[in-house]
Design goal:
heterodimer; A: about 160 residues; mainly alpha; about 90% helix; rod-shaped; B: about 400 residues; 2 domains
């Protein structure tokens, strides 16, 4: 029966030792260790969350980049297209202008020719007139001495002068 | 939830596995004890008749000595006996602290009894009290000696001397408990210093998983998110205290502290107090007036539950005591096989079996600490749980 008879001394010391241990370890061991573990768990969780966030940010950044790239490509396309259109327009405009100018030049040249022709004719007429007068004078000077020759001469000359 | 249930089943299975063994061992030890007390008389008797008779006892004497050796090893003692050298015991005498109402406290070394354990040597304290030691218990000495002993025995061979009113001696168990406590304090003081940064180093790396294990798998799992933080320090202390003392008890020469009923009684008493102090309204309602069952059954349930309040910590006390004591008895019996069979050839079997049991004991040392802490957490969990209304 000794084996299962509780002994006061041992109960007393067990109680004292154990309660002292609960107090001391509770205060100086469990509290800081558990706090440290909790802190570490929290910091690991934070780090994981931060990594997750960074990954998300990266992803959004990547998609942003892609969007920007796409936009740039579109912009380039647009600019090239515009440039092409502008080139065509400029060329066709230039063509039109050139044609118009040409036509204008031709027209003015024609007009100038007509005018020159007219003035040349007029000049010719004038020259002819003066020439005829001079001839007439000379002829007159010579012929007029012979009366009938005079009249003959004049009419013959006038006939000859009919150009048109 | 499933995981938790399967774990309880495993624990229950293990407990039952070890329970028959420990019960058997206990029965055995009980028988042995009876046997030993009958033999004690035969030891006393030769004292009158002379020394020749002692040598006359052969077979019986040897068997008796083994039982006595085992019982001596698993019992508490006032000196820490290591081994015998030239038939002289080499031991560490421990302080005796006793109190009598008449003369007050006495403090002296157990060395004063000169290894005597049958009341022959009297120590007279400075306050006038006279003490003797019989079977590692301190008694007040009788005035005159009978058969060279100041202890008087009844017809049923029990010491009739009065005991001191209180005996709080630093016995072998108490001393070993102090050692265990010192180891714990030094260990955790060392660990705290290791925590300069957030990363555990050295021994902290080994202990921290255990701390986290107790917190998560014992406290949190059984008590629940809401209350577990309050009880974790207690559970941690219980777990490490029992475990370290279990291991100290396994070291050859160590005391069978955790296999001592006083030790397990104290711890289970604390569990009992903590569980019932923290019991909420639901807990008490489920004990006295179980909701959701017919009225006659409620009365029956109340009776069963009230008994349950006491049997739960009682089972804690018996489980740890029986497991540790049985283990010690088995190991010592196996070691003693050589003396029982009286041949050296049994030694290999003895050594192999002892080693096998020893390894199991190392597991059991951990397992019992775990089970004690786990069941304590479970009981606290039951007491603090908030039930949904049925």
């Amino acid at each position: 029966m000794d084996l299962v008879t509780p002994d006061f001394g041992l109960i007393f010391w067990t109680l004292v030792t154990f309660l002292l241990l609960v107090f001391l370890l509770g205060k100086f061991a469990w509290k800081p260790i558990l706090k440290m573990v909790d802190d570490r768990e929290a910091s690991i969780e934070d780090a994981l969350k931060a990594a997750e966030r960074a990954r998300d940010e990266m992803k959004s950044l990547q998609s942003d980049n892609e969007a920007v790239l796409k936009e740039a490509r579109q912009e380039r396309e647009r600019i090239l297209k515009e440039a092409r259109e502008m080139k065509n327009k400029i060329v066709s405009d230039a063509k039109d202008i050139a044609i118009a100018e040409g036509e204008k030049a031709i027209a003015s040249a024609k007009a100038a020719i007509v005018a020159e022709k007219a003035s040349a004719i007029a000049e010719l007429k004038n020259q002819a007139a003066t020439l005829s007068i001079e001839i007439a004078e000379k002829v007159l000077g010579k012929e007029l001495s012979v009366e009938n020759k005079q009249a003959e001469m004049i009419s013959k000359m006038i006939d000859e002068v009919k150009f048109n | 939830m499933f995981e938790a249930t399967s774990r309880y089943i495993i624990i229950a299975a293990l407990t039952f596995l070890f329970a028959p063994a420990s019960l058997k061992a206990q029965d055995h030890s009980h028988d042995d004890q009876l046997e030993s007390s009958t033999h004690e008389t035969s030891q006393l008797a030769p004292a009158d008749e002379g020394h020749n008779e002692i040598h006359g006892q052969t077979v019986d004497e040897k068997e008796f000595e083994i039982t006595e050796l085992i019982m001596h090893h698993i019992s508490d003692s006032h000196e820490w006996h290591f081994f015998d050298w030239n038939s002289q015991p080499v031991s560490l005498p421990l302080p005796v602290i006793v109190y009598t109402k008449k003369n007050g406290f006495s403090l002296f070394s157990s060395g004063r009894f000169h290894h005597n354990d049958d009341g022959a040597v009297v120590h007279e304290s400075s306050n006038g009290d006279r003490f003797i030691k019989v079977h590692d218990k301190i008694y007040l000495a009788e005035e005159e000696s009978i058969n060279n002993s100041y202890a008087h025995f009844s017809d049923s061979h029990e010491v009739t001397n009065t005991t001191p009113d209180a005996d709080i001696s630093i016995t072998k168990n108490v001393f070993n408990m102090f050692l265990g406590a010192m180891i714990m304090l030094l260990l955790f003081a060392g660990i705290i210093r290791r925590y300069k940064s957030q990363v555990p180093k050295g021994v902290a790396k080994f202990v921290e998983p255990l701390v986290v294990f107790v917190r998560d798998d014992i406290a949190l799992q059984n008590i629940g998110e809401k209350h577990y933080k309050r009880f974790t320090p207690y559970l941690l202390t219980v777990f490490f205290f029992i475990w370290i003392n279990n291991v100290l008890g396994l070291i050859p020469g160590g005391a069978n502290l955790t296999g001592n009923i006083s030790f397990t009684l104290t711890l289970s008493l604390l569990t009992f107090v903590i569980v019932n102090i923290n019991g909420n309204k639901d807990y008490w309602r489920h004990i006295f007036w179980m909701p959701g069952v017919p009225y006659p059954v409620r009365v029956l349930m109340a009776l069963i539950e009230i008994v349950g309040v006491f049997t739960k910590p009682f089972a804690l006390m018996i489980r740890l005591f029986a497991n540790m004591t049985a283990g010690h008895i088995v190991i010592l019996s196996l070691i003693s096989l050589v003396f029982i069979f009286k041949t050296i050839w049994i030694a290999p079997a003895s050594v192999i079996l002892t080693l096998f049991i020893y390894i199991i004991k190392v597991l059991v040392a951990f397992l019992q600490a775990y089970i004690f802490a786990l069941l304590t957490a479970l009981f606290i969990g039951q007491a603090t749980q908030e039930h949904d209304h049925h």
